[in-house]
Design a protein that fits this description.
Blueprint: H1 3-10, E1 16-17, E2 21-22, H2 25-34, H3 39-49, H4 78-92, H5 94-105, H6 111-126, H7 129-141, H8 165-169, H9 182-189, H10 193-199, H11 208-223, H12 226-241, H13 248-266, H14 279-287, H15 292-308, H16 315-323
Antiparallel strand pairs: 1-2
Helix pairs in contact: 1-2, 2-3, 2-6, 2-15, 4-5, 4-7, 6-7, 6-12, 9-13, 11-12, 11-16, 12-13, 12-15, 14-15, 15-16
Length: about 325
């Protein structure tokens, strides 16, 4: 089964399963294919993963004339959002549609622990328009706004601006949420307005994407926490998605806000260093794994290293090496 056929089959599944767990199958299939998995491996992974999934709800149509943002954050709206976005893409094309939709979705970029964003980015990389509509629908129905950002591109007048996200993160206390889902932990962190006040001091410029990519990789390499893993894959996804927005720095400002809340929620603690492994071994381990998080993490790390690494830079390989021992 090739990637297109595999993603066609994914349309039969709901975007979540169990107690609010995200359906990782489409995004993982894309990552596997980019790691060099052949059709047999894609088929085997899909067959192993699919039994945990639930069937997609019955098709519905978007009510004519209703403004599309009216149901953001309503999980039960996924069927109507997938129908709306599929029709929108068919009528106007994916690029034009994304230019209109993404600015509205970005303030809720932490949706489902960044899985709406991550699934959307992988759909874009696959070129599968049906999967793109379903991915955007998931982002929309789990849209999670964390409060307003004050002057997100220049910092607030009440405190000095900074361009180093790691320095600002050091000012924040770890969260205390007892929730099990990462998205709920992030929501609980947002109850403390201090996170937004500190986050708003970041001066977002053209260097911010790389600084956040490095901060995410460092956080995961040092902690091995699954929330930090989602920051690595989420930052990679942002690099893909922001190619389709007119104001990418504004999008990155919203992502940084969500990033800061996720770090607070994660309660990161350092682990002993993981042994550094070569890329061929890491890729082979991920390609043969049935762990969706490992697969996506290794693929994202490899892509981020290609985009940002300097001579002798092993940061993303350190993060990928952490993944195979956690």
């Amino acid at each position: 089964m090739n990637l297109v056929d595999a993603l066609n089959h994914c349309a039969a599944h709901a975007p979540e399963h169990g107690a609010g767990l995200s359906n990782h199958l489409p995004a993982t299939l894309v990552a596997l294919e980019r790691l060099g998995a052949d059709e047999a491996r894609l088929s085997a992974f899909a067959a192993a993963y699919a039994p945990r999934l639930q069937p997609a709800p019955l098709a519905q149509t978007w009510p004519a004339g209703d403004p599309w943002p009216d149901r953001l954050g309503q999980y039960e709206a996924w069927p109507v959002y997938r129908a709306l976005f599929a029709e929108w893409i068919a009528q106007e094309g994916a690029s034009d549609m994304l230019g209109q939709v993404l600015p509205q979705l970005m303030p809720g970029v932490s949706a489902a622990a960044f899985h709406g964003l991550i699934r959307t980015a992988n759909a874009l990389r696959s070129g599968h328009l049906g999967e793109l509509a379903d991915a955007l629908a998931y982002w929309a129905c789990r849209h999670q706004r964390l409060g307003a950002m004050h002057n997100p591109l220049a910092g607030t007048p009440r405190a000095p601006a900074a361009d180093d996200p790691v320095a600002l993160l050091r000012e924040l206390r770890a969260g205390r949420s007892r929730a099990e889902l990462i998205s709920d932990q992030i929501r609980d962190a947002a109850a403390d307005g201090r996170v937004n006040r500190v986050a708003a001091r970041l001066f977002v410029d053209e260097g911010t994407p790389e600084r956040l990519a490095r901060a995410a990789a460092l956080a995961y390499a040092q902690s091995g926490k699954v929330t930090a893993l989602h920051l690595v894959t989420g930052t990679h996804a942002m690099r893909v998605v922001t190619r389709f927005v007119d104001e990418p720095l504004t999008a990155w400002a919203w992502y940084w806000q969500a990033f800061a809340h996720a770090v607070v929620a994660a309660r990161l603690k350092p682990l002993p260093p993981a042994a550094l492994r070569p890329w061929p071994a890491l890729v082979a381990r991920a390609r043969d794994s049935d762990d969706e998080h490992l697969i996506k993490l290794v693929e994202s790390c490899r892509e981020e290293e290609k985009a940002y690494a300097r001579r002798g830079d092993t940061l993303w390989r350190e993060a990928a090496s952490r993944a195979v021992v956690v």
